[in-house]
Write the structure tokens for this entry.
Amino acid sequence: MVMVDTRIIQHPKVWEASGHIAGFNDPMVDDRETKQRFRADHLRGLYVGSPPANPVPKATVVASTEGEAVEQISTDKKLQKLMGVRSIAKQFAPEGADGAWLGGVDFGQGVVTCTVQAVSMETLKSHAAQMPSPFTGKAGALTEPKQFNLMFHTYAGAVFDEANKAYLRPETAQGIFCQAKNVWDTNRVRVPFGIAQTGTSFRNEVTPRNFTFRSREFEQMEIEFFVVPAEHLEGDEKTTNDPMAWYKFFRDWRMEWWQSIGLRSENLILREHAQDELAHYSTATSDIEYRFPFTSPGFGELEGIAYRGNYDLTQHQKHSGAKLEYRDTARGEVLPNGSRRGVAYLPHVIEPSAGLDRGVLAILCEAYTVDPARPSPEFMKFHPRIAPIKAAVFPLVDKEGMPEIASKLHAELRKRFGHLGMIETDAKQSIGKRYARMDEAGCPFCFTIDGETLKDQTVTVRDRDTGKQNRMPIGEVADFIDKALRG
Ligand code: ATP
């Protein structure tokens, strides 16, 4: 895997080639009266009946998931008033409801069963005149959906005109495609190999919300893994080196990676896209999704893994006029001297594309634990690998030689693990308070130097999750942490 760090502002033609200028749009709807604008696919309807008989909802709300819509409708009294809802008796997700919720809703004419679900684009177009506004409840105030480009633009150079318009990258992937030939021409890599990049991307999201789930400036982690097109594979390679085999490898490996950093609950799922969900250039795509508290019972995407064929390189080759083919000298006709003639092709690509901020948010949600019985009733159960503080070293009391031993152990641990995270030390306050503070920060282990240490060179290790304390030789502390980080 080769790492790159490409530019935020690329040549504008890059975004023409990638299709972002023409197609990186969200459908938007305006409310003519209040002048507010929202994403058409975020309009959720409160429908009477389950399934609803009428395609036009009784009321609407703007929310990125059904879960968020239900939350808003059931807690926001002002919204309920606007919707004509007097009370909601109960809320539940019935068996097999699949993203739609029912409730005992009172509109003033007896309690009815309701469903909350997305208003389809077709209904928005065909029933614009009857559609209630999410802001005023009035019918007919909404425009039909119009396309809105999500790229931030700026001007490169002193003249602010169309010719100098440039864009902040909406994804890091295109920088990788543009540098791919430079990478394989100048590094000793052979297809299959990958190029990886982590960097900031910008999208003019209309409704940034849910903490860092949807931001206008966010971090992405992307890999373009270049593979040999199936038609050039020979013998056993047809199975081992096949693009679909690589796709499956990355799909499963990425899922295991999210699990390995602590997303181990049933809130993490791998969802293979159905054929009709695939982009036209993709043969297979899957999403790794997490059930965030604000998307529940639905899921939000953390990462997409797609087999994109050679679509991107073909586009960049076409728009730049530069030949981007890879010359594979291990293939082609066998020459009299036993070597190969070589073949040139545009490699196919498997693209894992993940959101770093979203991932961190998922880790925070997963780690957040409430236990009223503990001195720190809220604590963070981070996997040691991801915990920002790897360990803490405490002298039980700030005297009797204990601080000196603690300071020595602290220095040793910092030297060994300091590049992975923080190692804390603290001699103030009661030991219980110091443990509680570390629990809240998600530090997995605290090592305490006490009277015994002075006698037999052992320390106590306190486990954050169980609160249990054990003794161990001070010389084994570093290896103990090392093992936990690998677990
Ligand atoms: P969504 O459907 O949630 O808008 P997307 O399918 O457009 O996401 P991609 O273009 O596939 O997302 O981007 C790859 C990853 O980048 C996503 O899986 C997500 O984790 C992250 N991501 C995308 N948009 C944002 C954003 N506005 N804020 C934070 N992370 C984002």
User: Anything to note?
Assistant: The longest helix spans residues 243-260. The radius of gyration is 28 Å. The mean pLDDT is 93.
